[in-house]
Design goal:
single chain, mainly alpha, elongated, transmembrane helix
């Protein structure tokens, strides 16, 4: 979050449009959490509900990486954000999503009660 806030608030940037990626941070894990809670683990290789949830989660993740790039590549004479703000936001995305992956790896172990989430 620090990278995202820096990308918005530093004196050279001063535009808060990149902060909209926080919405994607909130929405990204929700489909996977819901699908893992309400699907049965029958041992089959394919679970349509879980696959749809992963697809939606990946849509949010790709969107959070695409938003700052699209904002920085807007018309060249007046871009919405500067490239430095874009890079800081992308660095924040990497940190946040690495944390989410670590969360799911940690709490997806067999000896952990995942249903509490």
């Amino acid at each position: 979050m620090t990278f995202v806030i820096l990308g918005c608030a530093l004196p050279g940037y001063e535009v808060w449009w990149p902060f909209f990626v926080v919405l994607f941070y909130i929405l990204a894990p929700i489909p996977t959490i819901i699908a893992r809670r309400y699907t049965d683990d029958s041992g089959s290789n394919s679970n349509p509900c879980l696959e749809l949830a992963i697809f939606l989660t990946m849509g949010f993740v790709v969107s959070s990486f695409a938003l700052p790039i699209v904002l920085a590549r807007s018309p060249a004479d007046q871009p919405v954000i500067k490239w430095g703000a874009c890079y800081l936001t992308l660095a924040g995305n990497v940190v946040v999503y690495s944390t989410l992956v670590g969360f799911f790896i940690t709490f997806d172990q067999d000896d952990t009660d995942y249903n509490m989430w």
